[in-house]
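Good morning C.,

I know you're traveling, so I'll keep this short. The sequence:
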Amino acid sequence: MKAVVLTGEKGVGGIILEERPVPVPGFGEVRLRMLAHTLNHIDLWVLSGSPAYTVTCPHLMGSEGVGIVDAVGEGVDAALGLTPGMIMAVSPGQGCLVCELCRSGSESLCSSYRVLGGHLPGIFAEYVCLRASRLIAVPGGIDPLSASAVTLAGATAHQALVVRGAAKPGERWLVVGASGGVGHLACLAGKAMKMEMVGTYGPEKKREILESGLGIPLVTHESPDWPERVLSQSGQLFDGVLDTVGGATIPRVLPLLRKGGRAVVVGETTGAQTQFPTRELFGRQLSLHGVYLAHRMDIVAMLGWLARGELRPIVSSVGSLETIAPLQEAYRRMMDRDFVGKIGFVWDAQGRSGRR
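The tokens, ready to paste straight into the viewer:
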């Protein structure tokens, strides 16, 4: 089988398409024949050698994916009903599943929480073996690439918007960085909840795709006066802000919130240090939340919206991975921020079409 492996060299030049034996499921494991994958920013951190994700090479890449049950190992609970042919999404992050944090829906706070492709070997291979607890059934009729897109980026968007942000139907929310994986899925989730969403984006060339895929008011944050333009366009303050950029944007988004509003930060792509506006925070009684990844129930919720046709991720596919070159180019596009939504790939025509 083919697998995407990081050999040790940093950067996209360090990944190869390697031939490996098809794995045999161990006790409590299920083997999946993978259909489709989507890329995540965690992949870039691994490629850059970030201390947040220290891996041992050769390292199997990738966190997001959907596959078909190919074999069920001994010890898998029969009550789960896992049988060959079922299409399953992979839960990239997982805690111990037994502590109070895991059971209460705060799995990513568990001290045992580890992410496939980051802390652990990933799933970018034609076949993977995983614990049955990692798998979530994909409802019928969902394109595998779309399902893959919500397993980490989409789940994080749900955790940020719905769980930590406590967003409600009818509220007004601003998403800073609406062109990225988490950002655009948060916009779509908000629309599915009948919320009023506004988004910001980077280069002007992204606008047309965003307008078509999101259907919400948009303002470029490359303009120095973007907060003022957002406020002028919206006409009133926001109930919440979901910030996927972080860093220097924090002092600029807090004034856009009404008194008692909520801000949720899910990233820091600016890399900029900033003086935190504490007076703004306490003087207007704002709430500030940080979100790192998600819980498996966030994936379930996003798959539900997909199944009901209430959201459709923006996913561009590089096609079938016959060589490593298309994937290397996709990672370069991500590094250059030359993309909108998610980028994915498939292993064969079945993965492209989503046929069962």
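Safe travels,
E.
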